[in-house]
Structure formats: structure tokens, C-alpha cells
# Entry
Amino acid sequence: MASIIQFNGEDVASPLPFQVIISDQDQNSDSDSNGTLHRNRVCTKRKIPLEWGPLTWDEISKILTLTEDIYFNCRYPDPKTKRFETKSFYVGDRTAPVCNAQDNGSVMWEGLTMDIVER
# Structure
């Protein structure tokens, strides 16, 4: 089965949990003297917090390599449009705790977390 998410057209291990945050971006929003908010919404963007469980060295390396550029394409299921979308994203901090080292010199990673944000 294909992954629920792709980076730059390549399947990666499916993240769990998986959620899509739809976020309004405002500029110069302000409240008047009556407390009424006057919003100047300039756009709506997607933010996707991603979390993976245990990953092999190959799996974690692939994910980190595919998301290392300043911007990269991500294909994901969008709850609003009811279809898979491909959009340009950037990534924030990536956290990868090590689980244990194997006798053969390999490492098993406890997981990986990252937030990707639509460009």
C-alpha cells in the first residue's frame, strides 16, 4: 500500500498520527474601541505536524533527505478539498531520538517528528 504522504513524488513511511491544520494568515488585524475585531486575512495555509514511530536508518534518512531543501513538494490528503493535493512546503525543526544501536553497527530510531508549513 502506498504511503498517505509523498515528498517530491516519493513514498515514505506513513506517519502516525497525521493531521492537517488549516491556518489563516492575517496582516494588521486590529480591534476597534467597541472590541470588534477587524481582520485583514491575506491567505489560508496548511500546516502538517508529522510524527513517525520506529524507523530504520534507511527510512529516516530518506525522509530527512527529501525534506532538506528550503522548499519541497508534499502530496497529502486535504480535508477541505476532499482529494490529494500537492503543494510546496518548508520544514521546521526535526527531532529524531535514537532508540538503540544494533550489534551489526546499524541504528534503530525511536521516531521522527517535524512540522511542515505550506509556502
